[in-house]
Write a structure and sequence with these properties.
The complex is a heterodimer of chains A (about 110) and B (about 120). Chain A has about 110 residues and is mainly β. Chain A has no helices and eleven strands. In chain A, the strands form two sheets. In chain A, strands 2, 4, 5, 6, 9, 10 and 11 form a seven-stranded mixed beta sheet that branches. In chain A, strands 1-3-8-7 form a four-stranded antiparallel beta sheet, with no helix packed on it. With about 120 residues, chain B is mainly beta. The chains are: A mainly beta (about 110), B mainly beta (about 120).
Chain lengths: ~110, ~120
């Protein structure tokens, strides 16, 4: 299977802890995106990479959030000092030369 | 103003019937793309269909077609011959700044329409 994969699929953490999520894009895709989706809403854009360069960040991405894509392949999204408001589904997507973005299954974060 | 508006929070359709899911958008950018995604209860966003603002023909992909009315700024999804497996949340999304170097890459999504297909 060559789809987008995300790990872990579910994460439960206590408020104040740090968490890190991983996204493996479709292998030939050089563009990678992170989105956040809360209950009853559509996904909201967080950040975008072209190869290893982070080219766009949303204002939603507070200082507690950091994303990397060190070798232009997989990406990680870290949330420091988690808050209950960070509970959401975190979706990763990748795209190649076309306009379509292909999404992974998401990581569901619950902050208790 | 909302960039993507989906006014139908929920829709019901009988199996084998056609259904139209509404989407209107707001942009002043001349070059943009419109997308529809399906999100089953499992959570994964599945790409269905794409329409570019300069495309002359309405996009079609199997049982999915996009009714693009540029002057009205609408991009409705039509699903023909509905199947039970079509029951899911459907999201309309837009990407602005297509074809512009350094142009926007993010998708802006609507709030979705929950479709239920009944026997």
């Amino acid at each position: 299977d060559t789809g987008v994969s995300q790990n872990p699929r579910h994460k439960i953490t206590k408020r104040g802890q740090n968490v890190t999520f991983r996204c493996d894009p479709i292998s030939e895709h050089n563009r990678l995106y992170w989105y956040r989706q809360t209950l009853g809403q559509g996904p909201e854009f967080l950040t975008y990479f072209q190869n290893e360069a982070q080219l766009e960040k949303s204002r939603l991405l507070s200082d507690r959030f950091s994303a990397e894509r060190p070798k232009g392949s997989f990406s990680t999204l870290e949330i420091q000092r988690t808050e209950q408001g960070d509970s959401a589904m975190y979706l990763c997507a990748s795209s190649g030369p076309g306009n379509e973005q292909y999404f992974g299954p998401g990581t569901r974060l619950t902050v208790t | 103003a909302q960039k993507i508006t989906q006014t139908q929070p929920g829709m019901f359709v009988q199996e084998k019937e056609a259904v139209t899911l509404d989407c209107t958008y707001d942009t002043s950018d001349p070059s943009y793309g419109l997308f529809w995604y399906k999100q089953p209860s499992s959570g994964e966003m599945i790409f269905l269909i794409y329409q570019g603002s300069y495309d002359q023909q309405n996009a079609t992909e199997g049982r999915y077609s996009l009714n693009f009315q540029k002057a009205r700024k609408s991009a409705n999804l039509v699903i023909s011959a509905s199947q039970l497996g079509d029951s899911a949340m459907y999201f309309c999304a837009m990407r602005e700044g297509l074809g512009v170097t350094g142009g926007g890459n993010k998708l802006t999504f609507g709030t979705g329409t929950q479709l239920k297909v009944e026997l």
